[in-house]
Structure formats: structure tokens, C-alpha cells
């Protein structure tokens, strides 16, 4: 079980001077989304990014856990999206906040959990169900080594087994934010039919009189 590192995405943007609701509305009419770059002890930079690019990146998944190289009129900025706002009615992006990523920056990010080798799990082959406790795991990672996903290999897991974070090999410098316990990522649970049969057997055994 391991993790794969996220690829750096590239996004073009342009600097903008106007601020406020009126300027933002005008940008949106032009097919642009207002945004800001901040952090790393530097002054904020207001920018605009193409609506199509913003929409595509946000709805592709993992938007808040990928480093992006923003090309602002030819000047490159290494950033990570920290927040975005959607229109409350139509769900299209109306603003994005980008955090500058400096040398040695560490970030807390939610990383998607991906399960493989279901066919090699004895429990699943016997009709068990994969009960996913955590679809994502929050980790602290260097900005240059943010995991793309955490891969969990289900080989050998049987009904009743639990898969904990300790079963995952994390890259150097990547640690779970929750550090005070070996938390559960998933369990293999018995199918309902098997549970019912087991419950009936236990009930029958309890009802039988003890032999004298």
C-alpha cells in the first residue's frame, strides 16, 4: 500500500486592477473568474482566470490538493488553491483563492483513498462488503510532494478485518494529521445473509435447554 504524487498543473491567468462587486461582475461577463494570490509574506495579487479552465479544474476533483503553476501574463507563480466560491444557484465558479507555495512549505491536504485488488480479498470473494470509513485522509506534506492518492491493497483481507493507516506506506515527509491513534480507513463486513444466518444460529443455541 502506497501513495502516488500529484502532478503539477498549469493554468494561465491575467492580472486585473479593478476590485469590488462591479469589477467582478464585468470579468464574469467576459468569461473570466476573479481570483487572488496571497501568502509567502508577499503582497496579494489580484488576477482573473478563464471560466472554462476554472470550471474544468474544480470539477475534475482534487482541486484543493494540487499544486498549480499559474502563468500570470508570463510571470510564473507556484500556488495551491485554498478556497473557491460557487454561485449559490447555478454552481459555477465565481472566485478562487490561491496560496503561494514557497520553498519548504508544508500543507495540510485531504487525499483521496483508492482501493485495489478487490478480487484478491478472501472476504470480498465470499460476499463480504467493503465498508469505507474514510474516503479521504488528511495529511501534512511538503508542497512539492503532495500525494495524488493513497492506494490501499485489499489482498488477503477477510471478513472482520480492519485496514488501518499504519498499513499504508507514506512518502518521506508525509504524515497523517491525526497522529494520536491508528485510525481505521476501511473494514470488510459480512454480507447481510451471512449475518442473518449467524444471528439465527446464535438464537437457536441460546434457546436450546442445557443437557442434564
Automatic annotation (TrEMBL):
It holds the Pfam family Ribosomal_TL5_C. The keyword Ribosomal protein applies. GO terms for biological process: translation. One of its GO terms (molecular function) is structural constituent of ribosome. Keywords: Ribonucleoprotein, Ribosomal protein, RNA-binding, rRNA-binding. Gene3D superfamilies: Ribosomal protein L25, beta domain, Ribosomal Protein L25, Chain P. InterPro entries: Rbsml_bL25/Gln-tRNA_synth_N (IPR020056), Ribosomal_bL25/Gln-tRNA_synth (IPR011035), Ribosomal_bL25_b-dom (IPR020057), Ribosomal_bL25_C (IPR037121), Ribosomal_bL25_long (IPR001021), Ribosomal_L25_dom (IPR029751), Ribosomal_uL5_bac-type (IPR020930). SUPFAM superfamilies: Ribosomal protein L25-like (SSF50715). One of its GO terms (cellular component) is cytosolic large ribosomal subunit. Residues 106-191 form the Large ribosomal subunit protein bL25 beta domain. Residues 11-98 form the Large ribosomal subunit protein bL25 L25 domain. Part of the 50S ribosomal subunit; part of the 5S rRNA/L5/L18/L25 subcomplex. Contacts the 5S rRNA. Binds to the 5S rRNA independently of L5 and L18. This is one of the proteins that binds to the 5S RNA in the ribosome where it forms part of the central protuberance. Belongs to the bacterial ribosomal protein bL25 family. CTC subfamily. This is Large ribosomal subunit protein bL25. It comes from Devosia ginsengisoli.
